[in-house]
Amino acid sequence: MSFVDNQELSSAWSSVCAELQSVLGDAVVNNWISPVIPEKLEDGVLYLLAPNAFWRDWVRNNYELKILRVCSRRYPEIVSLELKVVTDARQGFSAPLSVDNQVESANPSSDNSFGISLDPDLTFDKFVVGKPNELAYAAALRVAESDKVAFNPLFLYGGVGLGKTHLMHAIAWSIKARDKKRTIAYMSAEKFMYQFIRSVRYKDTMAFKEQFRSVDVLMIDDIQFICGKESTQEEFFHTFNTLVDNNRQVIVSADKSPSDLEGMEERLKSRLGWGLVADIHPTTYELRLGILQSKAASASVAIPDKVLEFIAHKITSNIRELEGALNRVVASATLIGRQVTIDSARDVLADLLRTNSRKVTIEEIQKKVASHYAIKLSDMFSAKRSRQIALPRQVAMYLSKKLTTMSLPEIGKNFGGKDHTTVLHAVRKIDESMQNDVNLSEDIKLLIKILQR
User: Fold this and answer.
1) What is the 3-state secondary structure (H, E, C) of 175-218?
2) What CA–CA distance (Å, rounded) separates 342 from 323?
3) Where are the alpha helices (DSSP H) in 25-157?
4) Do 403 and 360 form a contact (C-beta atoms < 8 A)?
5) Under a CB-based contact definition with an 8 Å cutoff, are residues 444 and 398 in contact?
6) Sign of the alpha-carbon dihedral angle for 256, 257, 261, 264
7) Distance CA 390, CA 403 (A)
8) Strand 45-50 to strand 37-42: parallel, antiparallel, or no bridges (unpaired)?
9) 415-450 in b/e burial notation, b at 16+ Cβ within 10 A?
């Protein structure tokens, strides 16, 4: 396919963004990827425009490789990406809504909210309750339905895809349904940081402070993102105190409890633990089956109970992946007309079943790669730069990113405290080298097979 005009290029980019939602999640795509616009495709390079240098660097360091993979798979003529900063307003760039603008929503009940649009499917009546999440659900419902501040803050924490964001959206929907005049600020911690940096850059911090400190409800998703960000923590600390002192509700979510947030100031950890800390545990078989039954009830095809039980037993990682597995089975039945059986489900979900049956750790990867290349395990953590050591270390970093759910900073820590940019460079280097180096490509394939046995 060749892009003959900007409309075709924009359409192609929209389809890439849609696929990236299943890879990166809706929040990341909506907050960071969708606002980036394609400028042109030239000599295999897709040029993308970001609103500023911070935005460009953030996308480049965290999402560029995954964007390129989706682009290349859909459109083979795209071989690389080039992220640029918009410098000319005539290019037609429309920057994302700032914190002092209200987000327009398809549902008028969120007119007094800003930050992100609320998902109409993420409500309390569509949240399946079980032992792993019953405390978090009850606390969220109490906060949403109380005329007075029940717990301040309400701190929800748990692993990826266990329902934190669902409860956050449900609280916001419920509050707006009860009192449309209450103002709600709901956004991810990284969006909060971006808005703060933007206000500093444009010398508009007073407007930023007034906007956030005047809301009735402040909701921040994934607060762990500001760990290590001293200036952002400082601003959030004062915003938090102002709201609590004025009896305004604060609701926060994270992947760990306040006391376990490394890189978070002690005084902020203490504040976050003031109210009610409610954790969401990994799903049980009963909860997974209940979720599948709830989703299957509204599916376009009938899903036998035995198939639901099979999926609930096999897909154990998180709710997001569980629902994705059911969607695949339904799509196979509706698009291909294949009968829904355990065997057909096993075929459709083959890759997910492999992933869930074998969890690979970074330690295993380091051991197998060191053995394969006949180097010492300690070389994985060293600063040696000889090719004999550097290549295996880069391979191990590449496989860590490919086979685990660890972030770039987390992977770096497991390689002797390397910076996340070092890991990103290694991933890019191996990805590029595999295109031309047949031996390296075969090595990678062999190591993946060994690790996923």
Assistant:
1) HHHHCCCCCEEEEEHHHHHHHHHHHHHCCCHHHHHHHHHCCCEE
2) 17
3) 26-28, 53-62, 64-74, 134-145
4) yes
5) yes
6) positive
7) 20
8) antiparallel
9) beebebebbbebbebbbebbeeeeeeeebbeebbee
Closest CA to 351 of 320, 298, 384, 315: 315
Q: Length of the chain in residues, anyone? A: 453
Q: Residue 329 in contact with residue 339, Cβ under 8 Å? A: no
Structure tokens at 377: 């395990």
What's the number of CA atoms in the CB half-sphere (13 Å) around residue 56?
15
Q: How far apart are CA 362 and CA 402, in angstroms?
A: 11
Residue 153: cis peptide before it, omega within 30 degrees of 0:
yes
Phi, psi of 373 (to 5 degrees): -95, 5
Q: Which residues does 349 contact at the CB level (< 8 Å), separation at least 6? A: 311, 314, 315, 325, 328, 329
Indicate the residue type of 24. L
In the block, which residue shows the tokens 């994302």?
Answer: 96
pTM above 0.70, yes or no: no
Mean pLDDT of successive 10-residue segments in the chain (453 residues)? Answer: 65 88 82 85 88 78 88 88 67 32 33 61 90 92 88 90 91 89 87 85 79 88 90 92 93 90 91 91 86 87 90 84 89 85 88 71 91 90 87 93 82 89 91 89 87 72
Q: First CA to last CA across the chain, in angstroms?
A: 38
Contacts of 152 (CB under 8 A, 6+ apart): 244, 247, 249, 250, 274, 275
Lookup: tokens for 337: 């007309």
In DSSP terms, 276 is beta-bridged to 154
CB contact at 8 A, 70 and 17: no
